[in-house]
Design a protein that fits this description.
single chain; mainly beta; 44% strand
């Protein structure tokens, strides 16, 4: 398996692929092709999340007004309950994320 391989079909929705079973820590690959969070919708997750962009670009926003652009190799640790959203993701190339969810802090 290769983290940069794209599925045969990429639909209108983001593609989520768990890489290991979730036994308290979930590691997944996410492929975004221009998706963003709906206006006014904030993620409010129960677990910490470390996200890294492997390919493409993304812009994250926090409810506090902070924004962060992520390029290949960039990563950010988002604390549990820290409200955030995806403002945009690249289409060419698709944005490939590596996300780790768990008690990380």
């Amino acid at each position: 398996m290769n983290l940069f391989d794209l599925p045969d079909r990429i639909g209108a929705e983001e593609y989520f692929q768990p890489l290991i079973p979730d036994h308290g820590v979930l590691i997944e690959r996410i492929i975004s092709t221009g998706q963003s969070s709906p206006p006014g919708v904030w993620y409010d997750q129960e677990r910490d999340e470390l996200v890294a962009v492997l390919q493409g670009e993304a812009l994250l926003e926090w409810e506090t007004g902070h924004t962060q652009t992520l390029m290949p190799g960039d990563w950010v640790l988002i604390a549990a309950r820290e409200k955030h959203r995806v403002a945009w993701t690249s289409t060419e190339p698709p944005c490939i994320w590596l996300a780790i969810h768990g008690s990380l802090l």
